[in-house]
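Intended use. Records such as the Transposase entry shown here are meant for training and evaluating sequence-to-structure methods. They are not intended to support clinical decisions.
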Amino acid sequence: MKDLNQHYRLLLGLSDEWKVVDVDLDLNANRVIIDLEHSGGKLCCPECLGSCSRSDTAAKRTWRHLDAMQFATEIRAAVPRSRCLTCGVKTISVPWAGKHPRFTLMFESFAIRVLQAAANVSRAAELLRLSWDSVHCLIERAVQRELDRRSLDSVHHVGMDEKSLGKGHDYVSVMTDIDHRRVLDVSKDRTIAAADDLWQTLNENQRNDVESVSMDMWTAFMTNFTSASISAKRSTRCVVESSENSKPRATSA
């Protein structure tokens, strides 16, 4: 058993702070549960990153991990709580997962790749053996991670368009960074207010750096673009390109 525990510790890439104390195989449930235990010693405050003493231990919780062969695999651990003189009592960070998710970082990364390859969310949920709601939580966290680390300091050419969702006349408005081929933001509906919400994605200095805006001639976009609230914040000359007209129309800020 000692060799098995060491085997799983190496597979999980754990540091000396954590050790595998048990591996439970449940054949009836097709599940493997890996029990971890903190080795003790000084802790690191998850907020200020300062060294601090141990307060107590939180209740045991589990995280879904990558499958081991055909078995769904979970990590189970009681995470210590630090006592920081500045921040108070806090549950320490664990190396295999984020602050709140019920999934390990490796599993979330794998799940996003499955979502990208699957025909739809329902099919991805089936392959991952997760509920539809759990998959959408994974999507929301993945989007938020990318939003947190993206930079908007080099946005010079912006695209704006409306997209129809499903059946009927349900629309969203989309702002894109043309140079870097990425979506900057999405706003519900295709109204002047929706377009204004998109522009708020960029701060005043970033809006001043925009050199051109490409859009179709949808009235709400054109009205919003030429309004004082938008054009007064740009010191450059912008070009509005119509997808319905090959000739660009120039508008000075």
